């Protein structure tokens, strides 16, 4: 593939937002740690290792294939191969997303069902509701949309761009930014401006929040342009 293709930037932004969803576990991992003096160094080493693996994956794919699909595993479509070991590897790589989704989808579906029940029902008297509400309605609402999407949608790249840009931007960029700004204002009003937090983030300046909002807006615009160009 070409070394640089400016038309691929919208897809890149969508993939970046989508990959950012992997960071949602960081607060849960950091909170229980007592000694946070070298936490920044540990996280930096962790992300450096992740970056090395991503670069290794990207460069090997760039040199191995003349054309790269948006979903990387689609490049390993099984072919007629006399070597049984290589054929098994090809099938494993092609089916790798199926393996990962098969393990995570039930957990995510159960979590979403429980959240919907907590939102619309009184969980303290859940047994008082009829069988349809307790056992049928919310599981169907949870499972039906993904099944319909997989049945009718052929281009997975569009799904990645859509969820990564629109849903991902709202969940991973906009909501956390507004929550952080609101929480900082609340803490300043509650504790006062004289309190110094030695563990405060180096990105605590208001300019970073504005940057995140501008970045999210640019991601949405670029991905929207890319989707409209594909459909035209």
From TrEMBL:
<feature type="transmembrane region" description="Helical">
    <location>
        <begin position="45"/>
        <end position="68"/>
    </location>
</feature>
<dbReference type="Pfam" id="PF01490">
    <property type="entry name" value="Aa_trans"/>
</dbReference>
<keyword id="KW-1133">Transmembrane helix</keyword>
<comment type="similarity">
    <text>Belongs to the TMEM104 family.</text>
</comment>
<feature type="domain" description="Amino acid transporter transmembrane">
    <location>
        <begin position="3"/>
        <end position="187"/>
    </location>
</feature>
<feature type="transmembrane region" description="Helical">
    <location>
        <begin position="12"/>
        <end position="33"/>
    </location>
</feature>
<feature type="transmembrane region" description="Helical">
    <location>
        <begin position="206"/>
        <end position="227"/>
    </location>
</feature>
<keyword id="KW-0472">Membrane</keyword>
<dbReference type="GO" id="GO:0016020">
    <property type="term" value="C:membrane"/>
</dbReference>
<feature type="transmembrane region" description="Helical">
    <location>
        <begin position="88"/>
        <end position="112"/>
    </location>
</feature>
<keyword id="KW-0812">Transmembrane</keyword>
<keyword id="KW-0325">Glycoprotein</keyword>
<protein>
    <recommendedName>
        <fullName>Amino acid transporter transmembrane domain-containing protein</fullName>
    </recommendedName>
</protein>
<dbReference type="InterPro" id="IPR013057">
    <property type="entry name" value="AA_transpt_TM"/>
</dbReference>
<feature type="transmembrane region" description="Helical">
    <location>
        <begin position="132"/>
        <end position="153"/>
    </location>
</feature>
């Amino acid at each position: 593939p070409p070394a640089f293709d400016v038309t691929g930037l919208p897809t890149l932004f969508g993939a970046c937002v989508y990959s950012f969803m992997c960071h949602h576990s960081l607060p849960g991992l950091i909170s229980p740690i007592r000694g946070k003096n070298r936490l920044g160094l540990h996280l930096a080493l962790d992300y450096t290792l992740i970056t090395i693996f991503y670069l290794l994956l990207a460069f090997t794919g760039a040199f191995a294939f003349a054309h790269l699909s948006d979903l990387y595993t689609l490049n390993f479509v099984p072919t007629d191969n006399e070597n049984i070991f290589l054929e098994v590897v090809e099938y494993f790589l092609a089916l790798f997303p199926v393996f990962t989704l098969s393990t995570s989808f039930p957990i995510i579906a159960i979590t979403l069902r429980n959240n919907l029940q907590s939102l619309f029902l009184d969980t303290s008297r859940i047994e008082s509701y009829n069988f349809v509400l307790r056992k049928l309605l919310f599981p169907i609402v949870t499972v039906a949309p993904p099944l319909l999407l997989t049945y009718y949608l052929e281009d997975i790249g569009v799904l990645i761009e859509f969820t990564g840009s629109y849903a991902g931007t709202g969940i991973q960029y906009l909501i956390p930014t507004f929550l952080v700004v609101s929480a900082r204002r609340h803490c300043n009003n509650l504790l006062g401006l004289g309190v110094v937090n030695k563990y405060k983030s180096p990105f605590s300046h208001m300019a970073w929040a504005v940057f995140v909002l501008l970045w999210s807006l640019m991601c949405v615009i670029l991905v929207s342009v890319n989707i409209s160009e594909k459909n035209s």
